[in-house]
Amino acid sequence: MTFIQGFQSLYLHIPFCKTKCTYCAFNAYANMDTLVNDFVDALVREVEIVGRSRPGQQLHTIYFGGGTPSLLSPGQFERLLSTIHALFNVKSGSEISLEANPNDLDAPYLTALRQLGFNRLSIGMQSAHQNELRLFARRHDNDAVARAVSAARRAGFANLNLDLIYGFPHQTMTTWKASLVQMMALQPDHVSLYALGVEEGTPLERWIARGELPEPDDDLAADMYDLATDILGQGGFEQYEISNWAKPGYECRHNLQYWRNLPYPGVGPGAHGWAGGVRYSTILAPQKYIQALKSSVGDYVYPRTPATVEALEVDRPGEIVDTLLMGLRLTREGIQRAAFRERFGEDVVTLYPALMNRFSAQGLLRIDADTVRLTTEGRLLSNMIFRELV
Description:
The chain is α/β, with parallel strands linked by helices. The protein has 16 helices and 17 strands.
């Protein structure tokens, strides 16, 4: 799982959905189909600006997230990928990922995506139970997931991720185990498991605040996490990040770029990026995003574009903290002490001696000559550890 020196990752945010899930706080919008064509024009324009403002950028991963990127047509993806290949140096064998809703993935669509160069799919399964999917306002059922996986394999996708959510109201250990077993039966190559976060402004948050749903049970969620760790381990999956497991060799290269705090330009409404020493975000509203790209003139300082609304020059102390917070999420790799010294000129342990010694003594960190990593117990208390490092 070594990174490729000098290569970046490109993230493209597709903000449209047919329906918005009740737990979702991402920048996503339903019932905006009429904007999609103009949005693709604007996204092409933003990719061009980022590419031309720093020629020769090398990419080893491209990731389409959302929203629901699988609402775009193969022709629209062809425009976007052609623009990327024309303006960036895309490494042969790059990981090109698409987040997708199961209902969107029929055989012709998947075959077209594969021919365009997509080689990794991330399918939002979320649960194997219809009543739980209804709680989330998901527009698929369990059979749709199975059909999508089968069609993806027939189309030639050899790298497939499935997402599940746990720790939500009315979920039990029995239903959670059944979802895990059903997911394993579909034989994914990679698994992402997310504990429900009750996000402000979502329907789930309102229902819980009004007493219509119970508060999530943190202790039950911890037990669910332990159960998943056991089941996935028995199934040949290796946990390489707090929420992610993979068969050997199928770790998500794009997300590893984030967790190693390496550069990734981000484009599209509500995208975040880290490139050129700058952390930045873009306009949220698709209409305003489209208008900003239509009216753009002149040159822009990399990685900024007309859609950039916030840009923070990150100093050395800030970059160190970011590197620690993200790197400690990597359960096997952790913080590589030699790489940290090469990057920052100091050893991570000597930078934070009191915290490192305390967390190590408490059994939350494992420190050896090569790495600093969270222990199994430390993973469950990672948010507390991260707060103290900031």
